[in-house]
Amino acid sequence: MKILRVLFLLLVFPVPVLMADLHLSVDVNDPAYMILEMAEIKGAIYSLSRVKPYTAETIYSLLSRAQSKQGLFSADESAILGRIIQDLEERFPGLPGNPAATDPVQLNPVYPGPVRLGFWEESLFQINANNPKNWHMYNALRFFMAGDVGDFLSWYGNVGFTYDKVGPDSFAPYSFTKEWDGFHIGFGEPRYSMDGVEPIPYLSFILENEITAEFFENSLTFKFARYRRDWSIGDGSLLLSKTARPFEGFDFSARLADWISLSYTVGSLGNWMEENQIDSDDDLSSQKMFTAQILEFFPFTWLSFSAASSAVWGKRFELGYLSPLMYTLLHQNLHGDMDNVMLELEAEAFLLG
Question: Residue 50, Cβ neighbours under 10 Å: how many?
């Protein structure tokens, strides 16, 4: 079933953006992650971190390693794996081992030079077969800039706008995800809409960015970015799900050894509640900061387990919430306060045949 989903995504949602910036992250909804999951289940790769997104170079390296073990895959699986790798080579010509990396014209297909400029458009239309009045339309146009600074740092930024009619009921249960930022501006009544769930289409906006630096063969990564994150095991993680809106934050990840990895993020969630919806004695509106850290262990190729903690905070400035080595739950208990904190323990095993 997942193979069919990957084929559908490749055909319906191709990603036309071409970049040489191999340190940039690949969106967490990209079909490449499904193929990585399949390759791990097959035993072609192992000890994958559950902290996503990965950079383009990391995904390309993992998929190339999986492709070298063709005997583990069926003919259809091998074909899809090859298609994903080819897609990455087209989108990121600067990837090591890619023939296009020696061609400066292919490295900068939109605007020749160290800075690349471009744009892309995407559209989606859905309707609820049981109730045709519930329909959804999404059209987005993004303008982007991207580039490299030396061999270790890549940067990217885009600004765009959408013209959409938001219909959450036209999606399968639990699959609707907000794609816009801020609010909607309409040409009728009401003039403004916070959620876009109105009978007419509305304009809204998109803002995304990323600065990533990688060192020591990509085992040490620093990012300052506004993008979607996907942390922990499985879909819809309670720690940090890819269905959540992107937020501006600083990410740190270190593969300390083959069997241990440490990751940390801290960022601002923005003004996600309207003040007029909050009682005067309720302090929730000031809870706008988010911190999460996860320590992953890979004792065997078929076994991994992790310990993670997170906090939604902002009532006061706490250095303890800014430390990658200080679990937020432990720090809160030391101070006797009542922040929104969570502790998560997980284990995952693969029974390879």
Answer: 20
- 34-78 per-position pLDDT tens digit: 999 989 988 899 899 999 999 998 999 999 999 988 888 889 889
Query: What are the domain boundaries of the chain?
Result: 1-109, 113-216, 229-353
What residues have CB less than 8 Å from 238, skipping those under 6 apart?
232, 342, 344
| Dist. CA 58–CA 7, nearest whole Å | 22
Phi, psi (rounded to 5 degrees) for 85: -65, -45
Helix (DSSP H) and strand (DSSP E) numbers for the chain = 6, 14
Distances 235 to 33, 101, 198 between C-alpha atoms, Å: 12, 34, 29
pLDDT at residue 251, rounded to an integer: 97
Cα 31 vs. chain centroid, distance in angstroms?
Answer: 12
* Percentage, residues of the chain above pLDDT 70: 82
Structure tokens, 4: 């069919």
- Amino acid identity of residue 297, one-letter, is F
Neighbour-count burial for 109-146, b at 16+ CB within 10 Å, e otherwise: beeeeeebebeeebeeebebeeeeeeebbbebebebeb
Residue 45 in contact with residue 246, Cβ under 8 Å? no
Q: DSSP letter for 36, please.
A: H
335 versus 7: the higher-pLDDT residue is 335
Q: Which amino acid is at 296?
A: E
Max CA distance (Å), the chain: 64
The answer to whether residue 221 scores a pLDDT higher than 90 is yes
What average pLDDT does the segment 175-198 reach? Answer: 86
3-class secondary-structure state, position 58: helix
In angstroms, rounded to a whole number, what is the distance separating the alpha carbons of residues 137 and 139?
Answer: 7
Say yes or no to pLDDT of 291 above 90.
Answer: yes
For residue 216, count CB atoms less than 10 angstroms from its CB and return exposed for 0-12, middle for 13-18, buried for 19 or more. Answer: exposed
Short-list 170, 203, 197, CA closest to 185: 203
Mean pLDDT across 109-114 = 48
